[in-house]
Design brief:
The structure is a homodimer of 236-residue chains. Chain A has 5 helices and 10 strands. By secondary structure, the first copy, chain A, is of the alpha+beta class. Chain A has one domain: Electron Transport, Fmn-binding Protein, Chain A (Pnp Oxidase, Chain A, Roll), CATH 2.30.110. In chain A, strands 2-3-4-7-6-5 form a 6-stranded antiparallel beta barrel. In chain A, a hairpin with a 2-residue loop joins strand 3 and strand 4. The two termini of chain A are 22 Å apart. Chains A and B meet through strand 2, strand 3, strand 5, strand 6 and helix 3 of A and strand 2, strand 3, strand 5, strand 6 and helix 3 of B. Chains A, B: Pfam families: Pyridox_ox_2.
């Protein structure tokens, strides 16, 4: 495995190519810092853009859903998809309208999605989706039932090509606009966790569990997800 | 104009249909509370999922980019797209792995995207993208140049069909799991604004401008965007 995804016609970043990266570390860092992705796929020429939760083992991305969902029934046959994760990091105000921008980190992943049909891989994937977010949590839960496994479809996609694109800078004004008496700068945007809201039917004797330790109030979601991905990937 | 988008084969929500809404108010509220969307489109059977900034006038969505970008060159001819906005609002932990979920608000919009070629509509759209985020800001900036207008492509899409999907609830445990000694609840997720970072080359005499008033540190981004959209939509 090389350190870089192949750069092809479909994955090459065309617009502001200087912001592009193709190495696995950069792509995985963006994927792992998010739980929400958007998956594009095509049915009879019509594109769909569906939000879903993803998780990763090596170069393989997973997502899941009801066995009855349109996306999953369609993907079952093995179809091309594009899975994209984007973090919005800031609003960028410049001295000209043209140079206004946004700070962001995004990763576009291309591959062929297929339904996970092997019973053991599917069971493991359904354990993974919980343990990836809350390492160790499955050990505290009752086992998944056969009916629950049946009701869920799991999709896997080997990342064949991918690109990352990052803007992390202050305003990029044209030199000739530098003298204008206009404010320019960045308004940072952060996605953070708040204090937990226990289920209203929960007995008061049940405390906040250890598997929530990475999700302390005020923590950035991307930091929490990076930390839990490391725990997940290093679990035996 | 009715209050609801038509419910068709492509827009009907299949999975957890009870979470679906089709009325304009619900769809617009989700769109207007975000600046980031993902656009799915197809080139030679290959789906692409591209993050971009969107803005809205009535039932018309706009986005823009470099005239050289792949997406925009492709969309210029009028092609089907699906534009999706998703807000992640919380992690939902249940007593069973199966009932873990997420709180979210998403809107999927279907339509035919086309390049805005009318010079006056294009110029207005490029004013709009700044004034939609920072109402009144254009009045403080130098005019957009003809070269800047040429270098930018603007895409418009009339929303033909759309659906909104919302989960905003605590854990939905099965009755038979209610006795299990396991914590269940929601970890809320919020996307918020932080203190501005002025451009390092900005003279210290230039204060934070009035157009940033809705973006006070600690404000939720969705609240700021809702407020600015109202100002934008009601401007003369």
């Amino acid at each position: 495995m090389t350190d870089s995804y192949p750069i092809t016609a479909r994955s090459r970043v065309k617009r502001v190519a200087k912001r592009a990266e193709y190495d696995r570390t950069a792509v995985h860092a963006i994927l792992d810092a998010a739980m929400l992705c958007h998956v594009a796929y095509v049915i009879d020429g019509q594109p769909f853009c569906t939000p879903t939760l993803h998780w990763r083992r090596g170069d393989r991305l997973y997502w899941h859903g009801s066995s009855a969902s349109r996306m999953l029934r369609h993907l079952a046959t093995g179809v091309p998809v594009c899975l994209t994760v984007t973090h919005l990091d800031g609003l960028v105000l410049a001295r000209s309208a043209f140079n206004h921008s946004a700070n962001y980190r995004s990763a576009m992943c291309f591959g062929t999605a297929h339904l996970v049909t092997d019973p053991e891989e599917k069971r493991q994937a359904l354990l993974d989706v919980t343990d990836r977010l809350f390492p160790g949590r499955n050990a505290t839960l009752r086992p998944i039932t056969a009916q629950e496994i049946k009701a869920t479809a799991v999709i896997a996609m080997e990342i064949e090509e991918a690109s990352a694109k990052i803007r992390a800078a202050n305003a990029g004004d044209d030199d000739e606009d530098g003298h204008l008496p206009v404010w320019a700068g960045v308004i940072p945007v952060e996605t953070v966790l708040r204090a937990e809201q226990p289920s209203p039917v929960l007995p008061a004797t049940i405390p906040r569990p250890a598997d929530l330790a990475p999700y302390a109030p005020g923590t950035r979601l991307d930091d929490a997800l990076r930390a839990t991905q490391i725990l997940f990937a290093s679990a035996p």
